[in-house]
């Protein structure tokens, strides 16, 4: 019979394998930022991305990750389009199966990053929008 994890075990694991935009931005501001991998399409990448992210389309991750990050103990955060996209979950699973031990998924993906008012880079330049009060309360 399979043992069901306790609530404490579940939430501890959840925090270990996920990060949110505010926590990721804080890590980066301290200079402790992980490798950030955008697994979206070429068109999505061109339209906007997290500054400093590396683009590897999800389908190419298995064949390209070793050239980008050979250290399987590297801190890696993957993201896709938004909360309704499983691309980053699939990418995190693929990286874990390849032996990468410190992989996290960005909660809300690129959508929440942009909506929280963090900098975005596109092929036409760098921008920052005002934080959306639904994702980044100001009070």
Mean of all residue-level pLDDT scores: 94
Whole-Å distance between the termini? 48 Å
Number of helices, counting only DSSP H or I runs of 4 residues or more? 6
* Secondary structure category: alpha/beta
Strand content: 15-25%
Rg calc: 15 Å
Run of helices and strands: HEHEHEHEHEHEE
Reported for the largest beta sheet, the result is: 5 strands, parallel
How would you describe the overall organization of this protein?
The protein is of the alpha/beta class. 37% of the residues lie in helices and 17% in strands. The strands form two sheets. A five-stranded parallel beta sheet has the order 1-5-4-2-3. Helix 3 links the parallel strand 2 and strand 3. The chain starts with 6 loop residues before the first helix and ends in a 12-residue tail after the last strand.
Record the SSE blueprint:
Blueprint: H1 7-17, E1 18-19, H2 21-29, E2 35-38, H3 42-47, E3 54-55, H4 61-68, E4 75-79, H5 87-97, E5 102-106, H6 109-115, E6 120-122, E7 125-127
How would you summarize what this structure contains?
The protein has 139 residues and is α/β, with parallel strands linked by helices. The protein has six helices and seven strands; from the N terminus they run H-E-H-E-H-E-H-E-H-E-H-E-E.
